[in-house]
TrEMBL record:
Coiled coil: none annotated. Gene3D superfamilies: 1.10.287.3610. This is Diacylglycerol kinase family protein. Belongs to the bacterial diacylglycerol kinase family. Its EC number is 2.7.1.-.
Length: 124
């Protein structure tokens, strides 16, 4: 039987996965930067806690799916360096999952920032 890993080791490996993915995946860095900017804007416009919680949720969803996408890409590359229609399907579907989450994140962001930005610009 495999010996049980300590919580510290589990946490360390998970963090290594996050850092390695940020280091190698440009899209993940772009989404990370967008998340920092959106969070700063939410604080600047004093969005209500529930709106900030919703933003945190969609940010976590997009970043998590980027990490899963990275894992799937690495696994596919490990299994086959050759062109294969199943490899294409796995990678395209994983990228599609990130795209769907990112599009809905943008829509949610527009809905949440629309009023405070108009107010700040003096239109309401
Ligand atoms: N082994 C393969 N067989 C078939 N198609 C592949 C294979 N590897 C990659 N592809 C195709 O090329 C696309 C890009 O794959 P790649 O591994 O280069 O991802 P990437 O450009 O690094 O993605 P990301 O920008 O998200 O990191 C895939 O979505 C898929 O359509």
């Amino acid at each position: 039987m495999k010996p049980k890993r300590k919580w510290g080791a589990v946490f360390k490996h998970a963090l290594e996965g996050v850092f390695a993915s940020f280091k190698t995946q440009r899209n993940l860095r772009v989404h990370g930067a967008a998340a920092v900017l959106v969070t700063a804007a939410a604080l600047f416009f004093r969005l209500p806690p529930r709106d900030i919680a919703l933003l945190m949720l969609v940010i976590a969803l997009v970043i998590s799916l980027e990490l899963v996408n990275t894992a799937i890409e690495a696994t596919v590359d490990l299994v086959t360096p050759e062109w294969h229609k199943l490899a294409k399907m796995a990678k395209d579907a994983a990228a599609g999952a990130v795209l769907v989450a990112a599009v809905f994140a943008v829509i949610i962001g527009l809905l949440l920032f629309y009023e405070p930005v108009l107010h700040w610009l003096g239109f309401t």
